[in-house]
Every structure is written in C-alpha cells, then in structure tokens.
Amino acid sequence: MELRTLRYFVAVAEELHFGRAASRLHMSQPPLSRAIRQLESDIGAPLLHRSPAGVTLTPAGATLLDEARALLDRADRVRVRVATAAGARTLTVGFLGDSTDRGATRLAAAYRGRHPGVEVRIREADLTDPTCGLRGGLVDVALTRGPFDETGLAVRELRADPVGAVLRADDPLARRAEVSLADLAGRSWFRFPAGTDPLWQAYWSGGEPREGPVVRGVQECVQAVLWNGTVGMAPLGHEMPAGLAVVPVADMAPSRVLVAWKEGDQNALVRSLVGMATGAYRG
Questions:
Q1: Which of 179, 181, 205, 272 sits 20 to 30 Å CA-CA off 63?
Q2: Closest CA to 167 of 237, 249, 245
Q3: Is the pTM of this model over 0.90?
Q4: What residues are paired with 257 via a beta bridge?
C-alpha cells in the first residue's frame, strides 16, 4: 500500500467526486479511477459507493480514510523533520490583500502545531499581483484568489466565495437583495494598473472594459467607493466600514480561494502546507 495511492484515496474521499479529486491531484481521471480500483482489490473490500452524482464512503472506506490521514500526517512530519535537519527551516507565505481569513488563521495554528521549529515569514501583496510574488520568487507558496495565468504554477482550490458589489449605503442599489452586472453597467468601477494579469483584471471588472480610478490595494478600493461612489467588488462576508454596503451579484462567478506553488517544487515545507490547507479553509 503506497503513500501515493493513499493520497489519491484521501483526495477522492474528501472531494467525494473523482473529477474534482483528479483536478486537485493534477492528473486525469482514468488513472485515478484505476488506482482506487486496485486499492480496493488489494484491500479486498469496496471503499466507495459510486453513482452519477459522485461517491460516498463505505464503512471500510471511512475507516481507511482515518488511518490514511494518520499515516500521511506521520509521513509529512518525517519529511519536514528531515528537511529542517538539513537546513530548510524557513517558509515564506504570500497573502493577497487580506491575511485575516479564518481559513488562514486555522491553517497557521495547525501548521505551527505540527512544525513548531519552522519559521514562517509572511509577505502581503497588493491587488496587482494575484500570485503574491510567487512567480517572481519572492515567496514559496501563496494563499490567494483566482483567476490568473497559472503557467509554471500548481494550484489547488480551497474554497469558492460568492461575490458582491461594494456600494455606498445611500446608493439606490444598496437596498436591493441582489443586483446583476447589467444593473452596474455604465458606472465608474475600480481598475488595476496597466500590466496586471488580464484574467485577474477581467474577473474583477465583470468581464467588461471599465472606466474609473486605478487602485492597487483593498483600502484604495474602499475609499474610491466612499469618496466617489465607484463600484467596488468583494467576496461576501468581508467586513466593510460604516457607510458601505455589499450587495450580492447574482450573475458573477464565485471568487476561488487558492493555494499556489511552483510546479514541480518538492520542498517538504511547501508540500506540508499545501496538504493541510484544504481542511483548514473548509473548516
């Protein structure tokens, strides 16, 4: 029973869907399905109930999930202890704009509890670089949001947050239960500076070219709304200062919370954080 196969099984068991698990593992679905079938054959018992809607765990599968997590956790600790003994004692983590996410708080506590000897350095990036310095080599791993150009990077989705329009509280649209992108057409929006990742810019501008103030940080965006009545955008649940309202945008895709790292990076400290991030962000 190989650790790699156990990782495959844990991904399927946590996602309860082969397609999502394959995406998380950065592999195609057929070899993943074959690996789980082989694992069931080796164990001599079905681990999953399969249906068109997804999968559920059998009693044997639930037991294996607990044991596999414990084994993988132990293997993770071994790797990091060896890496720190060899001199790898520092990990630099990039955050995008807001490092107060409860998922990040849970991850920090879990990571420190597992690896108390590792020094974690934090770099908070502004909104112009969704990779938080990862592509430029300034950080080892990024806790961020998509979409952005993922060339050369590995990415795992941790959560998806609904998005709302940030409006002045006295804006007529602020009294609505929800708005559409069409309701916001023709209004002044915040924009990012020239050279910002085009996928990132397009998402936060609702897929349309916009006119309005250029901002680099969260507070600049907030102040543009307060002072100028500019349309801002933010994940629902983010606290806003008095005088602002966040109204759900019904036809805007959710904002994907991601952990990203350099493709092929075998750093044990990075791999450990990535492995722990899913559980921390999903609570």
A1: 272
A2: 245
A3: no
A4: 145, 159
